[in-house]
Write a structure and sequence with these properties.
This protein is mainly α and 93 residues long. The chain is built from three helices and no strands.
Length: 93
């Protein structure tokens, strides 16, 4: 019977690589959010939403919440108001 080798016992070159979550950085020289195209912002949100779904095991039913939370996270990281903050600032109530 062959014994299993734990990943920590493997030489460095053969260890499975662990994916890390990159934190988006706002371009400081150009004022953050305005420097991104809508496609770049959407791509960042999609990646953040994917990581949220991955963290919860890709269970169905929370895709919208993943997207909205990721959108708020990216907007905060880029220094702009979130959609909710924008709506509250421009509401008549």
């Amino acid at each position: 019977m062959k014994s299993r080798t734990h990943a920590s016992e493997l030489p460095t070159a053969k260890r499975p690589q662990r994916r890390t979550r990159a934190t988006p950085a706002a371009p400081a020289a150009t004022g953050g959010r305005a420097a991104l195209s809508p496609e770049q912002r959407r791509s960042m949100i999609a990646q953040a939403a994917y990581f949220r779904a991955e963290q919860r095991g890709f269970a169905s039913g929370a895709e919208l919440q993943d997207w909205l939370a990721a959108e708020a996270e990216i907007d905060r990281a880029l220094g702009g108001p979130t959609l909710l903050e924008h709506q509250l600032a421009h509401s008549d109530t």
